[in-house]
Amino acid sequence: GAVVSQHPSRVICKSGTSVKIECRSLDFQATTMFWYRQFPKQSLMLMATSNEGSKATYEQGVEKDKFLINHASLTLSTLTVTSAHPEDSSFYICSASDGDQRPQHFGDGTRLSIL
Amino acid sequence: AQSVTQPDIHITVSEGASLELRCNYSYGATPYLFWYVQSPGQGLQLLLKYFSGDTLVQGIKGFEAEFKRSQSSFNLRKPSVHWSDAAEYFCAVVPTGNQFYFGTGTSLTVIP
User: With 60 as the cut, is the pLDDT of residue A39 above it?
Assistant: First the structure.
């Protein structure tokens, strides 16, 4: 079945560092990708929706300049957390849709820890 | 306000016992409905989904869910729980387009 690969699975870095997370659709063309954030013991909260070749649409309260999203191809979207701080530590999950079906293909998530 | 509700934050069942996890939604039209399972530190695994048709949906790992329009519910069930079923379970709703709305999750503990 369809697979979404997310990399890295875990990253630990110092405060002030920028971190890039990749989300790849391995066997289908993802016209739309979604980025979620999940705090411990909480549900997933949608951060932004990205369509290939266009600017991402951010949810209210999500800083565009803080969380840079690029969806340059039909198989790759990246989330860059710029100048990360400890409060950005979280579990980030992407999902991808081929446009025809609902986005039921999720990556395995990235655990981001900022020291 | 539109929402997805999972009333039970935490459920504990004995291995071999039956399980039902509740999910209610408050969207006007019938949305697309999903159940996902998440093990600690892992991503989401799709258990089953409902788009249309038969309101009783069979999923993986012996799970099933029933869509009840009159109750705006999509409860997840399993006749006999295994220890490996211990995880966090999320109900998700897609009212229109592709945007998911997740419930707050139900944590399942299975005792031997």
Answer: yes
- Whether A92 and A110 have beta carbons less than 8 Å apart is answered as yes
**How far apart are alpha carbons B34 and B49 in whole angstroms?**
4
Question: What would the pLDDT profile of B27-42 be if each residue is shown by its tens digit?
Answer: 777 788 999 999 887 8
Query: Are the CB atoms for B106 and B6 separated by under 8 Å?
Result: yes
Are B2 and B27 in contact by the 8 Å Cβ rule? The answer is yes
Q: For residue A2, what pLDDT is reported?
A: 59
Whether chain B has a CB inside 8 Å of the CB on A33: the answer is: no
Q: List residues in chain B touching A: CB distance below 8 A.
A: 32, 34, 36, 41-44, 46, 49, 51, 90, 94, 98-100, 102-105, 107
Tell me whether strands A90-97 and A110-114 are parallel, antiparallel or unpaired: antiparallel
Interface test with B, best of A12, A102, A105 (most B CBs within 10 A): A102
Q: Is B68 buried (19+), middle (13-18) or exposed (0-12) by CB count in 10 A?
A: exposed
